[in-house]
Amino acid sequence: MNLFPELKKRYSGDNLNAREAQRLAEFIAFGPVVFQTARILLKWGILDIIRDSDNGMTIDEVAKHTNISIYAAKCLMEAALCIGILFIDPETDRFKISKTGWFLINDPAVRVNIDFNHDVNYEGWFHLEESLKEGKPAGLKHFGDWPTVYEGLSSLPEQVQKSWFGFDHFYSDSSFPEALEIVFKKNKTRSLYDVGGNTGKWALQCVAYDNDVEVTILDLPQQIKLMETNTSGKEGANRIKGYGINLLEASAKFPKNETAPDAIWMSQFLDCFSMEEIVSILSIAKEAMGDNTRIYIMETLWDRQRFEPAAFCLTMTSLYFTAIANGNSKMYNTEDLAECIKKAGLEIEKIYDGLGQGHSIIKVKLINQ
Ligand SMILES: C[S@@+](CC[C@H](N)C(=O)[O-])C[C@H]1O[C@@H](n2cnc3c(N)ncnc32)[C@H](O)[C@@H]1O
């Protein structure tokens, strides 16, 4: 595998000594309670008050300030010590926030991931084994009886929707400014199909970027309704059209206008499908392309991450796709997507890396154009 340098360094070889390896194995064994302890420390504001204290805090002080029992404070804070969220100042014997605690409080990506994992994934991952064996999202059952999470998105409980969209938007939103430059400045785009356009966030940015841009959002019919409510009355919304479609249906076709679109945009979309389905969707897209049309695939490809924690998040997120989303898709690497693009009879023209939180854009054209 052609990994980016930091990943290659980290993932080539077995780099821990025996004691570190044993500790990591126990960290894994207690993974669920490590997660819940950290989440509760954040939710109850315990990490905040310790950070804001002048000189750290004792267990009794935390119990008093947060109105919890000394027993609860002791359990949480002793566990936090061993997890590495807190440390004891050797001079004062008081608990202080570690660097890891600081990231838990301040890193927006960590907060989004905690909410996503607690509200959307936590219970579903109990069914990961079944999902892997059957290629079906067995962990989705407790939310509803849909074949994939996408049919259920608009009817998920409010808090679950909030965390799902928070996760989805956090990653794509931060890449949109650079993506706009690539799609509209480096390439002359006037008409764009936004495939899997979701709530219309990208489409709104496209029409605001340039007064001549027209966007058609292709998404599941129930999602199009949500998008229309979300975009209604906003600047340029009259240049956004919705097109309800299930791209997994055999008869699915992109809308056919007099001229082919300049751009077909797929952001965080192809990761919702198996490789076989991706080939089929790209083949459908190909039918709608003209010589000058380019497909822009924006994905967080885990092998192209500059920083290892990002690759970690992405390979873990793959298992959300397994247990909750659809049972057959993942966060892909470059090789996988390149294979699908080739099988669909298309060609990679260029790959732009390092957008926002670690997105790449694969620009795709018809062969020999
Ligand atoms: C992960 S979201 C991506 C949203 C957005 N493009 C972004 O970058 O934030 C995937 C989108 O694909 C849509 N989708 C999933 N399965 C689909 C299907 N079979 N046909 C059409 N759209 C689908 C979902 O409704 C959802 O809006």
From TrEMBL:
It comes from the Bacteria. Keywords: Methyltransferase, S-adenosyl-L-methionine, Transferase. PROSITE patterns: SAM_OMT_II. Residues 184-345 form the O-methyltransferase C-terminal domain. GO terms for molecular function: O-methyltransferase activity. GO terms for biological process: methylation. Residues 22-95 form the BVU-1015-like N-terminal dimerisation-like domain. It holds the Pfam family Dimerisation2-like_dom. The keyword Methyltransferase applies. This is SAM-dependent methyltransferase. It comes from Muribaculum intestinale.
